């Protein structure tokens, strides 16, 4: 069953610009879907509509069988990791990762358990008491993912999560993102303008240009085209 479905989705901004045009895309349960295309083609807009951070002009968005067009972000049960992962500088890694659960009034022992589990998958166990300033870029990126993972979302949305990292670290983190997604088995919609990233990471790749999805295929089929 599809976990996230775009059905004839349009986005027209108030100035009349059509950033997403008649988008149809089905992302399967547990699937790693990449949305790739040049800067300005509408990728972030599409992602932000799934997150509920941007209204849908026309069409339907379905998450886990439920039409979510009018649902608030917090009621969509999805987690988004941004490019500029703003960690709270005064909090430790553990506090950063557990903060959303604390706000949700989850009890402390449950929070500790969730954070420890996520830290193990993310290989952050040795850094839980550190502050973000004392972490490497890759470690910070993993803390940002950890904040999303602890919420056990139905799906992850990632918007260019590696684009602030240097080239060497970016390659390392690709491997880690793929491993983490496999381990969690959670549906993923991952946005990038980087074709290499698209071809190495996803189960399937949706190619977008000027607001239109042009092709959806496995990296293998796209590579051979
Ligand atoms: P991408 O993520 O692929 O770089 P975006 O989804 O951010 O693309 O933007 C798609 C297009 O929509 C761009 O041309 C951008 O300038 C335009 N756009 C984004 N936000 C707005 C807005 N609030 N009002 C008008 N146009 C916008
Ligand atoms: P809060 O400080 O209560 O988290 P926000 O306005 O940041 O307030 O978020 C409101 C709700 O929206 C949160 O409870 C969370 O579930 C959801 N939310 C916040 N950020 C994101 C995000 N990046 N992706 C998806 N959902 C989010």
TrEMBL record:
GO molecular function terms noted in the UniProt entry: ABC-type transporter activity; ATP binding; ATP hydrolysis activity
GO BP: carbohydrate transport
Protein name: Sn-glycerol-3-phosphate ABC transporter ATP-binding protein UgpC
GO cellular component: ATP-binding cassette (ABC) transporter complex, substrate-binding subunit-containing
Ranges for domain ABC transporter: 4-225
Key words, A-Z: ATP-binding, Cell membrane, Membrane, Nucleotide-binding, Translocase, Transport
Endpoints of the signal sequence: none
UniProt key word Disulfide bond: no
Organism: Solirubrobacter ginsenosidimutans
């Amino acid at each position: 069953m599809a976990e996230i479905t775009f059905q004839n989705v349009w986005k027209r901004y108030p100035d009349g610009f059509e950033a997403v045009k008649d988008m149809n895309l089905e992302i399967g349960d547990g699937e790693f879907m990449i949305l790739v295309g040049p800067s300005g083609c509408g990728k972030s807009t599409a992602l932000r509509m799934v997150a509920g951070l941007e209204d849908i002009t026309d069409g339907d968005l379905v998450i886990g069988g439920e039409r979510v067009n009018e649902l608030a972000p917090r009621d969509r049960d999805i987690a988004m990791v941004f490019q500029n992962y703003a960690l709270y500088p005064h909090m430790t890694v553990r506090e950063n990762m557990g903060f959303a659960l604390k706000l949700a009034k989850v009890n402390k022992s449950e929070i500790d358990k969730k954070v420890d589990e996520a830290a193990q998958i993310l290989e952050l166990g040795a850094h839980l008491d550190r502050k973000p300033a004392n972490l490497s870029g890759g470690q910070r990126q993993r803390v940002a993912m950890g904040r999303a993972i602890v919420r056990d979302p139905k799906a992850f949305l990632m918007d260019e999560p590696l684009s602030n990292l240097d080239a060497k670290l970016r390659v390392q983190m690709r491997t880690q993102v793929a491993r983490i997604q496999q381990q969690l088995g959670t549906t993923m919609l991952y946005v990038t303008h980087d074709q290499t990233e698209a071809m190495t990471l996803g189960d399937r790749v949706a190619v977008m240009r000027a607001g239109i999805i042009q092709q959806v295929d496995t990296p293998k089929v796209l590579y051979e085209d």
